[in-house]
Amino acid sequence: MAIQTPSLELGAPLVQATAAAAGRGYWKSVARRLRRDPVTVICAAVLLLLVASALAAPWLGLADPYKTSMLRRLYPLGSPNHILGTDELGRDMLARLIYGGRLSLFMGVTPVVCALLIGGLLGITAGFVGGRTNMAIMRVMDVFYAFPSVLLAISLSGAMGAGTENTLLSLTLVFIPPVCRVSESVTTQVRGFDFVDAARASGASALTIVRVHVLGNVLGPILVYATSLISVAIILAAGLSFLGLGVKPPEPEWGLMLNTLRQAIYVNPVLAALPGVMIFITSICFNMMSDGLRAAMDVKA
Amino acid sequence: MLLYALRRLIYLVPVAFGVSLLVFGLVHLAPGDPISAIVPPDAPKEVIDKLKEYYGFDKPLPVQYLRWLGVTLTGDFGTSIGTGRPVASEVASAFGNTIILAIAATTLAFTLAVILGTAAAYAKSRIVDRLVTLISLVGVSVPHFWLAIVLVIIFAVELGALPPMGMGPENSTGWRFDRAHLAHMVLPTIALSVIPLGVVTRTVRSTIKETLSMEFVTALQAKGMNDSQILRHVLKNAAPTCLAVMGLQAGNLIGGSILIETVFAWPGTGFLLNSAIFRRDLPILQGTTLVLAGFFMLLNLTVDVIQTMVDPRIKRG
Questions:
Q1: Which end of chain A has fewer CB atoms within 10 angstroms, the N or the C?
Q2: B68 inside domain
Q3: What is the value of pTM for the model shown?
Q4: What percent of chain B has pLDDT over 90?
Q5: Structural domain count, chain B
């Protein structure tokens, strides 16, 4: 669950990518390579299925995920009417696992998207403007880097108190520094290339240079990185809920379900492990997608 | 070398200042006032004011910060609101317990990672390489607190082979090197080691693969050197990158042990942090966070210095 900052040797593939990125052809060839990679296609399909079922949950004819029943507690897997059994309060597990995807996926994706916008903006600004602005932004990021990522998320959430908004806020804060660092380093590299000087000499405004040259080159590496960050975010968000710092009961959420089902490990161990399987599948799919994207975007390959 | 270490140490000062500001700010992120956590809601105003004065919460923020910083720098982290004992001693004993677990977990993870990563990089057959890649992928993707629960289910509940929680037998205090205490360490060690195992295996594999494709390896082969001699050169070249990643992982493991320590009720810093959060014991929360962040900074510094020692090519300005 540790955030890995990717190796920053983007230089070599970047230069080649730049030439190819000039037209739409680059993204087309990336899409073509992705389609030919069976692992990535399967992962994308699984993720699509998870997202679609979470979104369509109310129309799937599932049991009410909130309806408790003291008589039907901890039914085993394969029970009639409850294919995946029932939880410690008699609620249908299948319904809760599918509904749980709503919050779990939302809490994994949202912080990364927010961090991409804020961290990306800060990083590109720091890299493009340079000088004192760069110093100021990057030194503030260094402070956040002085904390292990999980500790930072937990201390912030712990101080602010439980709740979905607080979790989103603390996770976003945790992901801004790595995104900022990656986009800063790529931007600084891009700024040094001759074509940027050429663009400037031919009268392109700073905004145009950022939009065309910097964003065009930063987007690829950042997208790959963000996909792997979502996997970290989903585990971290579930972890916070597991500790009681994230989503509050009775909301269905995978991390929280793992926590409340812990008391059942002596009665129905397989049931107690189910929510974790969902987290695992989601996170491994995002990681494999990230690897696939990396391979597809690396022009050397 | 010494000069470089010193320079890096000086550079840490502004970062440490920022860290202290952030940790101090934690208390003020908390909803409501820090005193309200420990007094009953119907407490008379005089009592609340007295307590505020006692903890220094009646002063303006900058004054509070400077006072807190001054006291903290002398090693006094205040008093736990929950237990009334000094924060420093509580954090110190918990930190010791976390380190015991961290040493076991990093040793396991790094040893396995180097073996697996090197094997994958050298593997002639694709199967070995694929298998190792899969192991490292699972390592970084598995929710480790879930793995901890699964381990408890298998080895404690179903097989009854290992204890599910605690640091030792019920009546023992502190940690000793004996069978009973080691048995309690097995499951938490495995659960903690999966993330660093995944990350480091990946790094070792890709770094060694990259090194193997360098020209000097071909030159050594042309010279007639055998594989095990070449491996020594390769490892030496791959070491700095791998060391850096290992250092970061060790720090993350220590700072991120809260979930595993909670599952296994291991009385370390993570467990302390967790109980502090739920008792709203902000001095403990502050103290633990500060100690862990400080340790993380020093660890990163040490890794950087070791890296320059191992790799003379790195010249840092």
A1: C
A2: no
A3: 0.88
A4: 39
A5: 1
- Is B115 within the bounds of a domain? yes
Q: Tell me whether residues A287 and B141 touch, CB distance under 8 A.
A: yes
State pLDDT tens for residues A13-39. Answer: 444 444 444 556 778 888 888 888 888
Is A280 within 8 Å of B142 when comparing Cβ atoms?
A: yes
The encoded tokens of residue A286 equal: 């995002």
Q: Is residue B221 part of a domain?
A: yes
In chain B, residues with a C-beta closer than 8 Å to the C-beta of A287 are: 137, 140-141
Instruction: Give the domain range for residue B268.
Output: 93-275
Mean pLDDT, chain B, whole residue set: 87
In chain B, which residue's Cα lies nearest the Cα of A269?
B153
pLDDT in tens, A206-240: 888 888 888 888 888 888 888 889 999 999 999 99
* Residue B109, in any domain of the structure: yes
Q: In chain A, what are the domains?
A: 21-59+89-296 (1.10.3720.10)
CA distance A300 to chain B (A): 14
Query: In this complex, do A269 and B158 lie within 8 Å of one another by their Cβ atoms?
Result: yes
Residue B158 with chain A: CB contacts under 8 Å:
269
Residue B299: closest CA among chain A residues belongs to which residue?
A146
Q: What is the pLDDT of residues A48-71, one digit of tens each?
A: 999 999 999 899 878 888 888 888
